[in-house]
Amino acid sequence: MEELRRLLEAFGIGAREVDIYLALVERGESTARDLAEALNIPYTKVYAYIERLRDMGLVIPQGGSRPLKYRAVPPAEVYKLLVNKVSNALRSLKPIFDSLQLIYESKHPVASPTFLTLIRGAGRVADLISDIIAATDNEAYLAVPFPELITYRLLATIAEESKRIVIKVLTTDQLRNKFDLPPRVEIKTVNEMFGGGAIGNSVLIFVKYGGEISGVYSNERFILEIAITYFYNVWQKAK
């Protein structure tokens, strides 16, 4: 049981709450007073522990009688609940680790194979633009046509990294005033752009389709050269 206690406590279930749950498993339905006496818990505090267990889905009140009795949710159901909780937590972390992997691969081109990765959502695209700038050795080229990508983090990254590398920014006439950057950052505008990108040691190309911004990220040298060529073609025509 000690191993179970440590495991449940790792899920944020306190020692007293574990005691109450195990007591309900072993004793069956019990009142708050019964639990307080059996576990030597102050009666005034036992209700708070029970309420937390109810909120976590581990204890169910049995209505229709006074004083109110409580029963434990079957351990098999609690196990499924904890498995789902872990699975959801890991799924929520995957985009973060995917972004970290992309940064790692851009910093270790010899150790990593050529890759092509689909990036979905304005938040992930905006974060990756900043990551590409920060990981770039010499020059970074940005084409930003969508206002939701012009985040505080992006502007701060451009301002800071422009002390170290050359950064060129291409945007639309309508969005020019959103780029409040040091004079060392060269900015040009065009009337409109159907998509954008970020180019450094690696490349991100993105468009907006169906209201969602999605892109393709790669360290493939051939794709990088195509992106640079296209950027300079538009850059020379911009004002």
UniProtKB/TrEMBL annotation:
It comes from the Archaea. InterPro entries: ArsR-like_HTH, TrmB-like, Tscrpt_reg_TrmB_N, WH-like_DNA-bd_sf, WH_DNA-bd_sf. Residues 8-75 form the Transcription regulator TrmB N-terminal domain. This is Transcription regulator TrmB N-terminal domain-containing protein. It comes from Pyrobaculum aerophilum (strain ATCC 51768 / DSM 7523 / JCM 9630 / CIP 104966 / NBRC 100827 / IM2).
